[in-house]
Design brief:
Structural class: mainly alpha
Distance between the termini: 143 Å
Radius of gyration: 57 Å
Number of helices: 74
Shape: elongated
Strand content: under 5%
Largest sheet: none
Number of strands: 0
Helix content: over 70%
Length: 1594
Amino acid sequence: MAALLPAEWIKNWEKGGKSEFVQLCRALSENKNHDVGFRDIQQALYELAYHVVRGNLKHDQASNVLGDVIEFREDMPSILADVFCILDIETSCLEEKNKRDHFTQLVLACLYLVSDTVLKERLDPETLESLGLIKQSQQFNQKSVKIKTKLFYKQQKFNLLREENEGYAKLIAELGQDLSGNITSDLILENIKSLIGCFNLDPNRVLDIILEVYECRPEYDDFFVPLIESYMYMCEPQTLCHILGFKFKFYQDPSGETPSSLYRVAAVLLQHNLIDLEDLYVHLLPGDNAIIEEHKREIVEAKQIVRKLTMVVLSSEKTEEKEKEKEKEEEKTEKPPDNQKLGLLEALLKIGDWHHAQSIMDQMPPFYSTSHKAIAVALCQLVHVTIEPLYRRVGVPKGAKGSPISSLPNKRAPKQAESFEELRKEVFNMLCYLGPHLSHDPILFAKVVRLGKAFMKEFQSDGSKQEDKEKMETLFSCLLSITDQVLLPSLSLMDCNACMSEELWGMFKTFPYQYRYRLYGQWKNETYNSHPLLVKVKAQTIDRAKYIMKRLTKENVKPSGRQIGKLSHSNPTILFDYILSQIQKYDNLITPVVDSLKYLTSLNYDVLAYCIIEALANPEKERMKHDDTTISSWLQSLASFCGAVFRKYPIELAGLLQYVANQLKAGKSFDLLILKEVVQKMAGIEITEEMTMEQLEAMTGGEQLKAEGGYFGQIRNTKKSSQRLKDALLDHDLALPLCLLMAQQRNGVVFQEGGEKHLKLVGKLYDQCHDTLVQFGGFLASNLSTEDYIKRVPSIDVLCNEFHTPHDAAFFLSRPMYAHHISSKYDELKKAEKGNKQQHKVHKYITSCELVMAPVHEAVISLHLPKVWDDISPQFYATFWSLTMYDLAVPHSSYDREVNKLKVQMKAIDDNQEMPPNKKKKEKERCTALQDKLLEEEKKQLEHVQRVLQRLKLEKDNWLLAKSTKNETITKFLQLCIFPRCIFSAIDAVYCAHFVELVHQQKTPNFSTLLCYDRVFSDIIYTVASCTENEASRYGRFLCCMLETVTRWHSDRVIYEKECGNYPGFLTILRATGFDGGNKADQLDYENFRHVVHKWHYKLTKASVHCLETGEYTHIRNILIVLTKILPWYPKVLNLGQALERRVHKICQEEKEKRPDLYALAMGYSGQLKSRKPFMIPENEFHHKDPPARNAVPATVQNGPGGAGMPTSLTINTVRLEEGAAEETADKLKEKSQGVVKVINKTVNATPKVTTSNGNSASNSKIIKEKDDKEKSGKEKDKEKKDKTPAATPEMKALGKDGKDKPKEERVNKDEKAREIKEKTPKSEKEKEKVKKEEKASKEEKSKTVVTIIESKSSAEKEREKEPSRERDLAKEMKSKENAKGGEKVPVAGSLKSPVPRSETSESEREQKRRKVDTHSSPSHSSTVKDNLNELKDSSAKHYINHTTPTLSKSKEREVEKKDLDKSRERSREREKKDEKDRKDRKRDHSNNEREVPQDSTKRRKEENGTTGSSKHSKSESPSDSPRLNEKEKEKNKSKSSGKEKGDSIKAEKMEKSSSGSKKESRHDKEKTEKKEKRDSAGGKEEKKHHKSSDKHR
């Protein structure tokens, strides 16, 4: 510290130092800051004195100046004494004697300034003695000790109510008097002071008595508080706190109970800050640690209770133990120990001292204090008081009076809230401390909720300033916190109180669902773990829920529903969570649960919606079953429950719909199942592939017809629920987003989701996505108003280009918009002009169409590449996509059906005697009204369809531009219109078929109906293979409708001539556009059309067999679905049907264990196919010409290759050639040639025929039949083979060649017929008798040979397996025989197979062979190649079997031989004679042919002979066949056969005859019986068919 007294002053003391010092002291004395001045004066005086001690200044100079300074301050002598005291201590320690002397002299000089009593107090006794102030220091010390002892350690004797107790009596009388008058605390205080003085009372005891009296007179706060406050000025501050502490301590023994009056006094003193809470808190029991321990113990106990409740009780003993434990627990909890802290807290709350109460609560675990009812009630009361004014202003419902609550008397209580902003300051805080224990005061609960409701009203009304908005936002978040922490937990602890639940919903429904669900989530997953009481409640709720759910059945829905309702009022989240877990396990609970939920409150329904979404979103649950091919059953159950519960009860849908949308955004489509169910149940719109054709037909009518006849279930009472669904979608803008997300997700399923999933599941998800889109779109179209729809759905180009919606979906969404638009425009035009004529109306309709569709025509141009519009116009494209079945046809039969149903109903009502008359009347009125509606609707639709057809008639000329080729036009039409739409929905499938027919009927230029149908039926493998399950079903429907049309035309010449005869769609020569000289020759005539239809049927069979044989799951499933759908119209031809039947049978056998779903499909189809068998016809009935005049035959030959003069059956081939697809050409040629052959055959053939190869007429006729079947399919195959070989110009050559070939073939056939006639007519009676005998013998043998045949087959099969090399040899041998035979093609007996299955065993043999061959086939995976191998091996194997038969059953053979030896010899002689005749005929024919046919045609013929020869034997029953293999065979045969084939064939025949000895004859007998047996089993129909087909094909 810097020196205040400079050395210069001391040096020049007399001159100026003295005056400077005096001035300094004066200045320091006048300093306002008392403390600073005091210290500085002390320092100045000390420095002055120290200069004297050091000898720098004389003591008299110093004493003089001190005399001047002493009067500057009152306490200056005391300061000086302090300075002397310090110097005394310092100098006594110094060794220099002179300094001590200087100090003594200075003190002596200043004795007149400081009184000696002060010096005696402060200076050392020795110093005092040297100064002469005392005589002896020793005596002085002794005296001071005595005085101190007397002062501090000797007790004064007070009389404690024994002596002078009058003082205390007066004190009590003073405090207990009537205080209502003018008596003040100051007056009383003076009297108390006098009493203390007079009667020598103990002040602490007096204070104690004042507190006692105050306890007894709590109403006089205003008197006692100021009295104590002023009394405390006389005491030490801690005294009051100690006295209160002693009072509390007195009651702390276990039996003691602290009186509430003491708590109250302490609380009031705390509130007035007369004591500190910290000081008093330490005196209270129990300690904080004990409280924390108790809290932990409660939590543990709660958890134990939960464990006991969830434990499975096995015996009654355990229940008894449980009861005992419960009793013990009750005893324990009866008397809790006295908690003084809580008592004080309660008192503080009662008087409104929130500040101190909060401090005590903060010391304890959360909600520990309020878990004691008294405290909770006290806090609730404080909240009541605080919110009273605001509640009275905004919260009281209309008409309610309510009892007002008076405010607290003291001014220190929290301020009452007048506005929402003030609520935030204190009330929200108080509520947070209350937590779940607000449940003790339902009235306050309701008040808080009503205030919340009022606040939300204000919050949601606009028009406040920005600052206010921010404040409101803060308040809103506070309200949400209160709801989460206080209101919902309190509801859980309340006894079931439906009113509270409804009251709370009043506030909740003003929150957006996102906030509500957040709150429910917290309530369900976190709140119940926060407090021991809630933990217990949760366990009890689950326990109760289990009890109810165990007993819930359809029969006791009502009582169980009531129990569920009661339980749900307080703890809905826990209850629903358990119920949903049960539903996920047992789907049969869905119906009873849905019915039992009718007693829920609105809040509970909302919570249920949340719980459902939470269950759906559960990340721990797998959405697929373990096989990864199907959606999990829990998800299906939940979806079904969703649909039912949302339909039946008024639950908000927004959250669920948003959840589905979010899942779609995330690329997950499983949850579309929920949307599908909800729309189905709420709107009554079903999406099912199982619709019957009647239902489909009804779906093409108006809304009323749809509702009556279109759905499976009767759709009733969906008006309200569909309105709710619509509102939810529109309010939350989810209608279009859901549509777009679904449309995009269809591809997402395949390309994003599909990667790691099973193909079957991907298909399922794709179908689910697509079906839901169709269903949802249908719902929007039928429920949204025109304005809503148009406002929400953007134009088609925006949908496709911006939102990347697939075109089919985009048009699906836009279609209702166009219909709405057109109808509203049409109505406008009708109103504007009142012209009522039909033509005016049509004109107006067409105008409105043009107005609406013109922008659409513009918009669609951007959807495809410019070159697309070279073939089809945008107008045609838009027309196709914008129309529906409703626009094209009226389902009259459906309307009639429904009207008739209603008539029947009305009749039944009339006949019903029990029905009361008024009900009868009502029902009849309902039926009549419905009938009128339907008829009105039918009339309206009829008018509409007529208008649409008029419009199409006008438009059609601009539809197809065909700037490239007609073929290209058809390609575009199928690719961009038909195929995408026919698999979109079942109705669209029907629409596509109808549209094609309509375009044909309208005689649309450039549209080739024939080409279109041909392309649809030709190769369905690719389209079928790329479909999902439901798409396959729809594609099947489309094919079914197309086949229906074709079959109608095929069935009757009159219909064909009427509907197709002169139509441009059936022109077969396509000239340049614009040339329209359609003469009759260009049209496809009826018979050739039938050939074409047969070709289509054959193509369908080929594709079907291919798919069935791939072994691929998708191929097999889809083709079976398609085949089932087209069953009414296909197969119609017997042999095609049989081929299919065998393949399907094979599938049944193979898939029984492996893929049960395929097995089920195949079995289903197989059964239906068998039932259709009686309706199938032989091929020659399916396409057969009546014999024309003979000269018609050469006419066909004269036509050159192509050109206008082509034969009618060939003209279509030019069409195909123009397109570059040669496949059909050959088929038509073949069919044509077959037709011609048939003509000749029929004219010649009057009697049954037998060939010459063996001695067995019956068996040979059978062989011929079989051979002819083979030949027929063989020829078709050959033609295909030739088509498929790369040829550009040769095809035209082929036409010419084939045309020239035909006459030759005809002649050969003619000769054969002639020969056969001779054979078949026996020459004498003897021969007739022989024939009869043979027949008898064969009957006798039949029974014997059946067994041997089967045995021989099975053993032969084994042998065949052992010796595959022998098969190959046989195949070669057979080929050489065929080549040798050349044009005649007489088969070896037994080497041909019948298309009719022999028996189950032979069927399985064939399959085994086929499988065996499949395993060896090349890896090219062409099933057709496999087929050919099979066929080769099969035929050779059969051949082989027949050779081995005799060796295996010799004993039986011998008997047969003896009987038949003579007969057979005679027969062989006859045969030789006939053969010679035949040979002569044949030679003559051949020479004629060779003269007629030019060289190139003979070359071609050789090729044909080679190929047909080989194919004949290599045909299996399968029509599907390998082009590749046959080409190879053709090459071989070509090389082997020479120009002298005819001669070779004759030699071959001779060889055969000579080789057929007596043993062989017996074998042939056996074969004969075998064949006969088969023939019997196949039935007469088939026999007839074989007859005809053999005619035709030879």
